Amino acid sequence: MKPGMQRTRWLLLALTFSAHAADSMLPDTACTTVKKAVARRFGVPESGAPGADWFCDVTPDRDSTLFLVALRTARPDARTHTNLLGWFAVDRVSGKLFKWDEKTRRTFAFDAASGKSGYR
To answer: How far apart are CA 40 and CA 94, in angstroms?
Structure first.
């Protein structure tokens, strides 16, 4: 085998491995990403407001590299009787956080500092 071909094979192998490694975000990491950003946005602890105890339902999106995250609280809203705080999406490769619209199945930009959002 020619030296140039061997180098090309190693390069392709390295790129394949690094792409796979980058896509190895775990659901718990996606949940932590959401909790940190939402806590920063609303100025509360990462566990949520006292007694709220946030938790996540995390599902990989079949059609993309996103984790879909439903952020929930242990204390349901008295008016609506739901514990859902919001839907989010976390890119499994980049770790970037988005707001998720479950109805349209679209992502929106999410700025934890200001809460501004827009379609992706």
So the answer is: 20
Instruction: Give the pLDDT confidence of 18-62 residue by residue, as tens digits.
Output: 344 445 689 999 999 999 999 998 888 888 877 788 999 999 887
Residue spans of beta strands (DSSP E) within the chain: 54-60, 66-73, 84-91, 97-101, 106-109
Show the tokens assigned to 34: 């959401």
DSSP-assigned beta bridge partners for residue 91: 66
For tokens 């809460």, the residue is 115
The one-letter code for the residue type at 56 is C
User: What phi and psi values does residue 32 have, to the nearest 5 degrees?
Assistant: -60, -40
Distances from the Cα of 46 to the Cαs of 25, 33, 41, 58, in angstroms? 19, 10, 11, 17
> Phi and psi (nearest 5°) for 75?
-115, 95
